[in-house]
Amino acid sequence: MRLPPALLLLSLPGCLSIRGPESVWGRERESLSVQCHYDSGWETSKKWWCRGAWWASCRILVETQGLEREEKGARVSIKDNQRNRSFTVTMQELRPDDADTYWCGIENPGANLGTQIKVTVGPREAALAVVGSQVSRKTNTSHLASSSRPYRRTHYVLLVFLKVPFLLGLVGAVLWLEERQRDPAEQRGQPIYANLSSGLLTKDTPV
User: What range does the record give for the signal peptide (predicted)?
Assistant: First the structure.
């Protein structure tokens, strides 16, 4: 379905009365939903989803009838939510050739309104490969974390049974050496100057 010839020259693409995302991405063989918003006053107007790089000649794939009832086309549907002033387009079973330029449009007796949206379709296999690599990376990380725990526990066991006795033995050896270096007189509790005084008196006394 194409736009009525009388309205082709009066179309206003990119009008601020209707807004949508500049681009969207969908996965092959899955569904993609696009939501477009419009200003107050356009609730009962027809909305559509059309395909083609040129707004004046894009091909309408599905359109509403001014109601909130869902309308369906070939692998595409549209539903208007007049309370929220937005309508949602859903493309199903995406194919690589679905990638193109699309438009959210509103029928207006004076000039149709529309906003351009670029749709890109990515291969499902590539997306699954990315997900698989992320899962594998998480698995390897958790495996490395679990394998490091026994090493840490073994390190703590060695610290208790080897390092602590070694330090205690070292402290004991230092204390033993200090005891050996002390004067024997000091160990008996006798002052050193007492021995020296008695020696001097013995030498100086006349016979």
Answer: 1-17
